[in-house]
Amino acid sequence: MVSEPQATHGPLEKPPSTAILCNTCGNVCKGEVLRVQNKYFHLQCFVCKACGCDLAEGGFFVRQGEYICTRDYQTLYGTRCFSCDQFIEGEVVSALGRTYHPDCFVCATCRLPFPPGDRVTFNGKECVCQKCSLPKSAGTSVHLSQGLWSCGGCGAEIKNGQSLVALDKHWHLGCFKCKTCGKQLNAEYISK
Fold first, then answer.
1. How far is residue 43's CA from residue 75's CA, in Å, rounded to a whole number?
2. What is an example of a GO molecular function annotated in this UniProt entry (predicted)?
3. Tens digit of pLDDT for each residue in 141-157?
């Protein structure tokens, strides 16, 4: 479990008969102590498990019961953007098994970020936006209302946004077949 709990410190108020022990060194806590969730620490004992830096004043994460500073947590467990290789904090876009910052997930043709909710087309090599995936020759694929397309194979509307772009047409994935033998093709074997 990973979390970013809050640490509070101040004078220890406890009943005189109950000794509070430091979670790190095991010695009795007296005076200024730090409490994280239900554990107590001497201020000097609350340090990053990876680098030993002071965690009393900065942010930290807890992973498998160990306290780790933000920098080391990112280095050890963080997710990097496939495009810019920087760590991702906050909102993330996942596509084709890769993760991106929202502003880094861009159309391969126009280099603009994909608008939220817009259809993204994977052409076998890269992702392109709805506008850039328009067929080059006007008569080869029929444009339907509200940005939908008809399939180059069966002619039916492509509703769920998943399509293959090949031969200047949009295709349902199962409709892109060899004209000669009828075998279904995929992007790995396409050649004119």
1. 25
2. metal ion binding
3. 444 444 456 787 887 77
DSSP code string of 162-182 = --EEETTEEE-GGG-B-TTT-
Cα dist from 125 to 109, 122, 129, 170, 186, whole Å: 12, 7, 13, 15, 12
Q: Give the 3-state secondary structure of residue 189.
A: helix
Q: Which CATH number fits domain 134-192: 2.10.110.10, 2.40.50.100, 3.40.640.10, 3.40.1010.10?
A: 2.10.110.10
Question: Of all residues in the chain, what percent carry a pLDDT higher than 70?
Answer: 77
pTM for this one? 0.47
Sheet holding 2-3, edge to edge: 2-3, 60-63, 66-69
Best CA proximity match to 132, nearest among 113, 152, 151: 113
